[in-house]
Amino acid sequence: MKKESDILLVGAHTSTQGGVHNALYAGQEIGATTAQIFTSNQRQWAGRLLGTEEIEAWQEALEKTGLVDIMSHDSYLINLGSPKEESLQKSRRAFVEEIERCHKLDIAYLNFHPGAALDDTASACLDRIVESLVRVEDLAAKGRTRLLLEMMAGQGSTVGHRFEHMAYVIDKVKERIPIGVCIDTCHLFAAGYDMRTAEACDATLQEFDRVIGLEHLYAFHTNDSMKPFASRRDRHAELGKGEIGMECFQFLMQDARTKSLPKYLETPGGMEVWKEEIKLLRRFAQR
């Protein structure tokens, strides 16, 4: 787990339309100190090429805005555990390109969905994910980007909705690549880990520590849930307007184990809503 910082790291997934640097200025506009971005179109296999001018504009924006601990979210198409050979190879190539873009932008974290078993078993899927990650060992060592497995809601055949899944992958690769976990609060709740009260949050963190280890927790996607507890359905809601409720987010902004970790909003509503939610999270942290 990250050490406590004087900077309260709160932000949102902001748009890179017109250039990746614009996401940083959008973050500054809503009062963010960090941001999550896509470095390429998340629904296309063809990866974006970052030119010298765009990289320089990014570096200038970092300096001007002061945003830190930027996270990239990988393409939704990537399935590092696919049993389909063509899809697996496409996914592995695209994942390499994701890491390369992160290195060019000196991005702190690359968040990725672990994968989906499709018509195969969860255990076989997890083994393919491990193999996919081991393949990028040399590339991962060339930059500072840490790869973060995102906790999933458990829809369909996806893996990563149980702490045991994350622990399995991390134990296999932690000595070879920089790895960690990003908790999406909506996904976690939908997967059956309660977050509705301070007591429930504490119990869930203790279970995370027992199974995975809190030293592997690096970030949060901070979202409420439209769907009920253990629904295994991924539908984000604005903070306090879903089934989780506000106590969870107050807890995360105040508990010593989670307060300093970066938190990225993916709630519906866009910039104006995020501006208010960032203010809200800051108020929670100051109490």
From TrEMBL:
Annotated positions binding Zn(2+) 2: 150, 184, 221, 266
Xref: SUPFAM superfamilies: Xylose isomerase-like (SSF51658)
Record field: catalytic activity: Endonucleolytic cleavage to 5'-phosphooligonucleotide end-products
Domain Xylose isomerase-like TIM barrel, first and last residues per copy: 28-283
Cofactor comment: Binds 3 Zn(2+) ions.
Family to which this protein belongs: Belongs to the AP endonuclease 2 family.
Xref: NCBIfam families: nfo, PRK01060.1-2, PRK01060.1-4
Protein name per the record: Probable endonuclease 4
